[in-house]
Amino acid sequence: MRRATIGDVAAQAGVSTATVSRVVNGGAVAEPTATRVWAAIARLGYSPNALTRGVFAGRANTIGVVIRDLRSPFYLDLIRGIDEVADAQGSLVLFANTFRQVHRELAHVHTMDEQRVRGLIVTTGESADGRTRRMADTGVPVVVVARTVPDPPAGMHSVSLDNVEAGRLMGVHLAGCGRSFVGVVTSGNRPSQVERTAGLRLALAEADLSLPDEAVVVADSEEEVGDAVGALLARARARDEPLDAVVCTTGRLTVAVHSALTAHGLTVPDDIAFLTMDEFPWSAALGITVVAQPSHEMGRRAAELVVERPAESVQVVFEPTLVARRSCGEGHR
Amino acid sequence: MRRATIGDVAAQAGVSTATVSRVVNGGAVAEPTATRVWAAIARLGYSPNALTRGVFAGRANTIGVVIRDLRSPFYLDLIRGIDEVADAQGSLVLFANTFRQVHRELAHVHTMDEQRVRGLIVTTGESADGRTRRMADTGVPVVVVARTVPDPPAGMHSVSLDNVEAGRLMGVHLAGCGRSFVGVVTSGNRPSQVERTAGLRLALAEADLSLPDEAVVVADSEEEVGDAVGALLARARARDEPLDAVVCTTGRLTVAVHSALTAHGLTVPDDIAFLTMDEFPWSAALGITVVAQPSHEMGRRAAELVVERPAESVQVVFEPTLVARRSCGEGHR
DNA sequence: TGCTCCGATGTAACTAGTTACATCGATGGG
DNA sequence: CCCATCGATGTAACTAGTTACATCGGAGCA
Cβ separation of B96 and A113 shorter than 8 Å? Predict the structure, then answer.
């Protein structure tokens, strides 16, 4: 069945396409004419072509979102926040996942540009910054999430977390719980990860505790976590300072790190304190203390920046909060 | 900065727009001309307008996905599967979330139609079926996920789970673990939920166990789960047949039901067996037995149906698998 | 040398809408 | 009674591309 065009509707109603367009978009049309046109629209099942509208308007009414890793609970809430704002605007979300592969970042940003999205939200690394900067220059607001951008052009914004503070909250809490020997599982060398570790080190130092380099291990994927945690525990034992706390700086690895501790026969919090990033559905039930990002709110803010198109570059930094539960033992419930 | 059009590129390169189009899309163009055109494209930062292409082609190269509830782990994996196939096709995913609100289903399907998506995947209820059927009639493949469609038109397909079998697997497992008094927490009256409960009842009957109506409670949201579980336990005690197993028929409520049991002072599996739907990140770590759907594979299959556009309606039914862990006690680890 | 044929390129019509401007008939004031 | 004005509607140009067809020039062959 061929799809009805505005021309078909016009012919049915015995008017010109201009009149149909006016009826649909609320121009000045006489009552009986409008009725006839609506009847024709209903009869033919006409639905206006949003692509054509977009061509004429110079922009689609979609918001592009390029996500690094859908699995992370952070991104899930972020998307919900974006979707809420987009929905309220009558916009749709054009969505792409890079599966943590750098070459896909650029490809997806490119495609978003071709799709003439009205704004772009990316959670990716720097690799695509050249292209996103150019998009910002052509008037498409770009929001970088979970990272700040050096020397951003006017149309390029960022929504990020105070990662140093996140680390500090962790350190202060652990010290307050009487823990002395802290190990860290972190993921790669993205700025967010480095800053969290730095903040943690800072807060520990203020409590006269040290965080030596050998107490920090890197795991890029869940598969690497088992070995990383094993190495961490072994090193500490070798120093004769067995760990009494393990921190995970990324929500993506929470399960894996927790499982690794359990697999080593350690009980949380009696044998070891456990502290991780990001709220997740089971955190309350399991009593795991986390440093939470307002991920939903961050998604909303990112989408709002797309909608509001501020004239100057805006850098929004959200503050993390520590949600104290049982996993670090004493002093906090 | 104004965005370069094909006309600007043509002027720069001293050729016609037709030639530029041929260069970009691989028509017959002499070598030196092509070089000149590519240089102009690079200089002007030209990126072809996908909207215009879509207008001419009659279709965008996006796949529309209308999701009921992003929070459910099932949908997350489903989306990843869809995204994988779309990505391999050079398509993008146009994405909308209905937040379980019926009026949004129709609105979003409508918008997807306007966007001239090349195919539509919906996980929604029947409310929008009228519109999706018409879309299928105009040649847009529609795939309904997690539900079958009565008397579907040629272009309308479904990807669903054998829900009766899912219930049966649960019943057989519980009987095998020596459990006798089973309670069920289910969510609303969607066919999937009803069928799972029916399958469970069937399997229990085969083991000479009954599942009376008062052992089935409904909770539509996480907030209602506490009261529902409380009522379930109280009723069983009143019958002098305290429950030794609780089944949750939807992955969305797993945390809430598990928490409610714990809140009532019950230990899993010693006091009570717990069995739920859908794998989730913590299931292995917590030792919770689940009936898993191949959600990722279901997403892939749904997207493949969009891409392959089979001439006749295709109904794909996936089989669930029971992943036995510790939460039902004896006989299985 | 003249004709044919072919590859390269331009012209213009087309997609499905929107909108500036022109036109038309009716109304109302002078 | 005539002309100005106004609301309703049509005409046609416009968006940014694609593509069928026309044209042009040179190579190859008789």
Answer: no
The answer, for B44 touching chain A at a CB cutoff of 8 Å, is no
Write the DSSP assignment of B202-267 as a string of letters.
HHHHHTT----GGGEEE-SSHHHHHHHHHHHHHHHHHTT---SEEEES-GGGHHHHHHHHHHTT--
Burial class (CB in 10 A: 0-12, 13-18, 19+), A150: exposed
Which bases of chain D are contacted by protein, using any atom under 7 A from a CB?
Answer: 7-12, 14-20
pLDDT tens digits, B61-79: 999 999 998 888 899 899 9
DSSP lists the bridge partners of residue A157 as: A143
Q: How far apart are CA B257 and CA B266, in angstroms?
A: 12
Rounded, the Å distance between the CA of A214 and C1' of C28 is: 93
| Residues whose CB is less than 8 angstroms from the CB of residue B252 and which lie 6 or more positions away in sequence, other chains included | B69, B71, B72, B187, B222
Q: What is the pLDDT of residues B304-317, one digit of tens each?
A: 999 999 999 999 99
Flag if A114 and B49 touch (Cβ within 8 Å). yes
Contacts of A156 (CB under 8 A, 6+ apart): A132, A133, A136, A141, A142, A143, A144, A149, A313
- Strand C nucleotides, any atom under 7 Å from protein beta carbons: they are 7-12, 14-20
Question: Model confidence over B192-220: pLDDT tens digits?
Answer: 999 999 999 999 999 999 999 999 999 99
- Closest Cβ opposite residue A80 in set B48, B97, B137: B97
Structural tokens at position A255: 């399960």
A138/B55 CB distance under 8 A: no
Average model confidence (pLDDT) across chain B: 94
Q: Is the peptide bond before B269 cis (omega within 30 degrees of 0)?
A: yes
